[in-house]
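User: Predict structure, ligand 5'-O-[(L-methionyl)-sulphamoyl]adenosine.
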Amino acid sequence: MLLPCAADKPDPAIPAASCGDEGLTINMAKFYITTPIYYVNARPHLGHAYTSVLADALARYHRLKGDEVFFLTGTDEHGQKVERSAKAAAQSPQRFTDELSQAFRNLTPALNLTNDDFIRTTEDRHKLGARELWRRAKKSGDIFKKKYAGLYCVGHESFISEKDLMDGQCPEHLTAPEKMSAENYFFALSKYTPLIKEYYARHKNFVIPEAKRNEMQAILNDGLEDISISRETSQTSWGVPVPDDDTQVMYVWFDALTNYLTALGFPDESAPLFKKFWPTDVHLVGKEINRFHSLLWPAMLISAGLTLPEHILVHGWITVDGQKMSKTIGNVVDPFELVKNYGADTVRYFFCRELVIQNDGDFSYVKIEERYRADLSHELGNLVQRTLTMVEKYANGKTPPPSHGEAAPYLESYQNAMTIFALDQALAKVWEFLASLDKAIEEMKPWVTVKKDPAAVNALLYRLLESLRLAAIMIAPVMPETAQKIWTALGLSTLRPESAILKWGGLKEGTPIKKGVPLFPALNK
Ligand code: MSP
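Assistant: Predicted complex:
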């Protein structure tokens, strides 16, 4: 996506580029973005779809901008939670995980995701890299054996302290933790407190948003504690074997975090993907797993002599009609159903516009239908249809000669919002832009003006068409199908990075438009 130089704001993730003679700058950079890898103890739900869509929108945005992007997702298949779910389903863990992993893989075509790879922690390529990371941490003197006893919450796949219990139960999973005592391997996390503090001090935007950064900073200020990173095979055998000790398997989080490396070819640091994309630019994670990514993961990487990620972007949780999603309540929303009812673009739009990334948000059928009716069908769909109809009527169905428009402030605000990952704000700007166009139509009333001043109508029509071209580019990361439909209606071909020029004047005079069917027809209710 080429940007007017004047509007170009420094982007922390991108090295500064100078302006060429033509007043444009091309910020070519690499962009590696990941979702958490999903536990395969149950089928994908709305929350998983949400994370994947946010990551996809950011990946698509960077691709359109001309960056080289690697977008990774996948499944986290080891640990007690998965092992027990397989047992309850009377299946072998391997068969069980094969089936559920496929269900997560199916999110890609359903939601129109563009992930470049899909990693499973049961794959050999992953286990190889996870074991190598262990070896490196051991070589750094960070792995030692220790006897301990504690309370373990299988839902969390982590220890939980007495003070965090409510009536003897984990407040999130509403189950009593299990007493565990064993001799396991530990990772010397406490040793890394000062180094990680220093990293936080030097990288103010490491954890985004600030509130989530502060939470991590508070834990750091108290000091990190060493963490158990293995399980005896007598407790659980469903895991990556610990190097040089087949009586233990790795703790699921120690294994899982390394997926971000192993998908790039680690331990082969000369692998082309590893060389090009490491370190990660954005690890997108839900708030409940922030601490694993923002505290444990950096320590593991330092221990293994690897570069740390640029950003951990933390998002909030989605409730359904104000309640936490749960099987007991029976309010778990199936993303595949949602896409069947409303289409992928509408679901994607809802996630990115209605939900503010750093806050918790709420899903309801009423809300998604309201967004469909008001924003998509009424504001966007009608404007496109109205514009095309007027071009047919007053300009022989062809793009009139270029005229001026008021796009620059919107383009700039959009770009700034995207740079700080504020998808909702970026979309709000696009909709303000659309509203300004509606207003211009109402003010001029082309159906009246055409009789006395056809040139003024032509100028307005060019402004409308060109603005829709720009709006299509801006919505493309979130609504790729709709963006392409608009692009096609304008008589343009495929919306690609080379053609996604966010600069006024891209439409050529005389281009025949192709009015199609309305973009968002009334919902069948
Ligand atoms: N397997 C771990 C992650 C390991 S990453 C090295 C895990 N998996 S999970 O399947 O339980 O959750 C993965 C992600 O799903 C969460 O971080 C969060 O992004 C998303 N969500 C799950 N439920 C959610 C909501 N109700 N709302 C929003 N997102 C939530 O944790």
